[in-house]
Design a protein that fits this description.
Blueprint: H1 3-24, H2 28-42, H3 52-72, H4 76-107, H5 113-122, H6 128-138, H7 142-171, H8 177-207, H9 216-234, H10 239-251, H11 258-282, H12 286-289, H13 294-315, H14 323-331, H15 337-352, H16 361-386, E1 396-400, H17 404-415, E2 419-424, H18 427-435, E3 439-442, H19 448-453, E4 461-464, H20 469-483, E5 488-490, E6 511-512, H21 520-528, E7 531-537, H22 544-551, E8 558-564, E9 570-572, E10 586-592, H23 600-607
Parallel strand pairs: 1-2, 1-4, 2-3, 4-5, 5-6
Antiparallel strand pairs: 7-10, 8-9, 8-10
Helix pairs in contact: 1-2, 1-11, 2-11, 3-9, 3-10, 3-11, 3-15, 4-5, 4-7, 4-13, 5-7, 5-15, 6-7, 6-16, 7-8, 7-15, 8-9, 8-10, 9-10, 9-11, 11-15, 13-14, 13-16, 15-16
Length: 610
């Protein structure tokens, strides 16, 4: 097959698998591996005409970018909050997991000690490329999510390094511990120099404008790959540790360009994952799939129900962690692309070094990946809810700006059992809201503190309602990706209706709330005039058209704020992003008390002639 056609097939299959997984709410890795097996061993459509060593090197470059992107997501602020658990999970944990995994591989799977120890090291990794999407899907609280995220990202290079050291001990050094310790020291040193110092120097140059803005993301990608390659020249497979450290350093330097750089890496990571999880399983020899026997299946069960729980129990013994977090982490450990890529490297290498059992390494690792991803992907959310570690159902409102009007809205939504959180940087403005029993956040909503401490996973809409229109726009753009831009709203500026050319474009702000768009000054004036946030329910005998006729002109006599559908889903209204209320919907509107609509019971009494 022509190279261009083959490349297009791999890209199309990978991204189609990602889309299908999103549509049917399955972990993407499951669909990707199934597609790779279908296109490779089963149909033979994908046959990459490269030597195994060359293909392995290309896979390594992709994994390096993925681990760098994961490192950029690690925040030192998170570590300060959950460091008591992370330290145990990333120091004691890998050694215990390697030891217990090797025991299981030897006594259950029947592998020789050299192959068993390498396999135990490979299974130390817990796959950030798998765990991060699962965390978003399960909507864990931030502390529990941070523990799993840090463990997944930090333990990836740790597991690879352990596999390298084990491989060298049995094949290169002639079982000489001195050589192994020297290799470990070299790996740590090169990661500190090329990853730590190199990452800091890159950030230093970027801050000073040495590189133009449009070249920063692609040049960073090249620098990451160069650091990976150079590290591997000093110490085999030290590059993965180097790029993780480099990502950690750059991600915590507070670069102005951090978000564009991170988005570029995220998009690239999606493509790379799609390609790698098609290419790697496609290279499996169909004959090797037949080597999966009862002992291999039993080994996977032991990894799930014995190795992982024992590792976490021993590693966190005496650590000041909640028992719920320990229980969750003891079960959740899906493996991902790094485990697959590492097995594809060391399996053939072990065979070449005189360990024929190395050929089963890749099929066995793929079996562990499939089982852990499916089982942990299905059970993470219900287990988190059962342990009280998941956010409540996503159905609520984050209000930025404490005013008399937002206080009125928060109180009305509270009566309807809709979760509300009001954030403001003024303790004085928040005081009356707090006195009403409404949850509040005191501080800058865009601060690092808020990023780590503000529990907003259960809130579905954002309303920026301060009297500073540009600040409202800034918050909407900063938090738009988290809430979804279609659920991000702000009050309109006073000149919105009369000065179209001077206002911010939709790409620079949130949607203007309500119909017609209302500014903060107008809401304040009408609160003084006696307007209030009220509700009424539509019915078969009282339609939305009748509701409009009753209240008068929208914007002049009343303002539609939002609604609650019959299934209890809260929605905020905007003329720019409208919805059509129907029978059974509860309308939330802002009007004078005199213009209020009778309640459903009052209408029934009136219709009955009482």
């Amino acid at each position: 097959m022509h190279v261009a056609t083959l490349t297009l097939m791999i890209l199309a299959a990978g991204l189609a698998s990602q889309w299908l997984a999103w549509r049917i709410h399955l972990p993407a890795i499951v669909i990707l591996i199934a597609s790779g097996l279908a296109l490779g061993p089963i149909t033979g459509l994908i046959d990459i005409a490269l030597a195994p060593e060359e293909l392995t090197e290309l896979i390594g470059l992709g994994v390096a970018i993925i681990l760098f992107e994961g490192g950029m997501d690690l925040k030192l602020g998170e570590f300060r909050r959950v460091g008591h658990g992370v330290t145990r999970l990333t120091t004691i944990g890998p050694l215990l997991a390697c030891f217990l995994g090797a025991l299981a591989a030897h006594y259950v799977a029947g592998l020789t000690w050299p192959v068993a120890i390498v396999l135990g090291a490979i299974l130390v990794v817990t796959g950030p490329t798998v765990i991060l999407p699962l965390l978003r899907q399960a909507r864990l609280n931030k502390e529990s999510a941070s523990l799993l995220k840090w463990e997944g990202i930090v333990n990836d290079p740790a597991g690879v390094l352990l596999a390298v050291l084990a491989f060298q001990y049995f094949t290169v050094s002639g079982e000489d511990w001195g050589t192994v310790l020297l290799s470990l020291g070299q790996a740590v040193l090169v990661a500190a120099v090329l990853g730590g110092l190199g990452g800091w120097l890159t950030g230093w140059f970027y801050r000073r404008g040495v590189v133009p803005a449009h070249l920063k993301p692609p040049m960073l990608m090249v620098l990451v790959l160069a650091a990976y390659w150079a590290s591997n020249q000093v110490q085999h497979e030290a590059g993965l540790l180097t790029v993780t450290v480099m990502g950690l350093v750059l991600g915590n330097m507070h670069l102005v360009e951090r978000e564009p750089l991170r988005r570029f890496k995220e998009n690239l990571t999606v493509v790379l994952l799609s390609v790698l999880f098609i290419v790697i399983p496609a290279q499996l020899d169909p004959a090797l799939l037949g080597t999966i026997d009862l002992s291999a299946l039993l080994f996977v069960l032991v990894v799930l129900f014995a190795v992982r729980p024992l590792t976490i129990m021993l590693a966190t013994l005496g650590a000041p962690m909640r028992w719920q977090d320990k229980a969750l982490i003891a079960w959740i450990a899906p493996r991902g692309i790094v485990a697959a890529a590492t097995a594809s490297i060391f399996g053939p290498a072990l065979v070449q070094s005189g360990f024929p059992e190395g050929e089963i390494l890749l099929p066995l690792v793929f079996l562990v990946i499939l089982v852990t991803v499916v089982i942990h992907g299905v059970t993470l959310a219900p287990l988190a809810r059962g342990l009280g570690l998941a956010a409540k159902e996503e159905n609520g409102l984050l209000i930025v700006g404490a005013t008399d009007w937002t206080r009125s809205l928060a109180n009305e939504l509270g009566k309807l059992d809709i979760d509300v959180l009001v954030a403001d940087g003024s303790w004085y403005r928040l005081k009356p809201v707090r006195m009403d029993g409404v949850r509040t956040y005191y501080g800058e909503v865009l601060s690092e503190h808020a990023e780590h401490e503000l529990e907003d996973e259960h809130l579905s809409y954002l309303l920026c309602a301060t009297d500073n229109d540009y600040y409202n726009a800034l918050v909407c753009k900063a938090l738009g990706a988290e809430f979804g831009h279609h659920r991000t709203f702000q009050l309109a500026p006073p000149s919105e209706s009369s000065d179209e050319q001077r206002r911010l474009t939709l790409q620079q702000r949130g949607y203007f709330a309500f119909e017609p768009p209302i500014d903060a000054y107008t809401l304040h004036e009408r609160m003084i005039e006696g307007w209030a946030v009220q509700t009424t329910r539509l019915s078969e005998n009282f339609s939305y058209e009748q509701f409009e006729d009753k209240l008068g002109e929208p914007g002049e006599d009343w303002v539609l704020v939002g609604s609650i559908s019959p299934d209890g889903r809260f929605r905020l209204y905007s003329r720019e992003h409208p919805f059509t209320p129907d029978e059974g919907w509860l309308l939330i509107y802002f009007a004078t008390e005199q213009a209020s609509v009778p309640s459903p019971k009052d209408r029934e009494r009136r219709d009955d002639g009482e």
